[in-house]
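Progress against Task 2.4 (sequence-to-structure conversion) is shown through the following example record, which the project officer requested during the mid-term review.
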Amino acid sequence: MRARGISYDTGFVRGGSYSRKLFDPEVVERELWTPFDVVSLDLYRSAGTADRVRELTAQGKPVAVTEFGSATYRGAGDRGALGLSVVEYGPDGPVRLDGSYQRDEPGQAAHLRELLTAFDAGGIDAAFVFTFALHDFVHRPDGDPREDLDLASYGIVKVHEDRPGSTFPGFPWEPKEAFAAVGEYYRTH
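Structure tokens generated for the chain above:
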């Protein structure tokens, strides 16, 4: 094994607070940082993201953010990891959204750029966008807006249910604005 590590679940953001205490630096140093080479965590945006990044990287171990992102509806970035909570599920998976939501691809792209910038500024060693595609959350632009599951998808591409995409022929998806934003950020940083 090349590296030993642990993933740290930061909890959900609810109204500006967390579902549990994030971490005690003394406990982290004693119990986590000493035996491990790398620490990874899922880190969704909140008011304290930059402070948490600085606390983590100040400990002297490489830090990888292994999941971050946003759904594609207006305001989803403010919901952090709860972006999928607007989905109603049936026995076979997602069925529809629980209300009417407005597509906001520029917002999703801006959210990802903002987090990538914060991670770079804070000294994060690796960051992984969640996710390329959520295949069960298909883009249905022509029907009931509540059935356009892609609005709740964190994917940086829209998955088509019944046809291939045109940007990359042969694949059943089309890039969202976030696809270009992430690609540009990774090429230039």
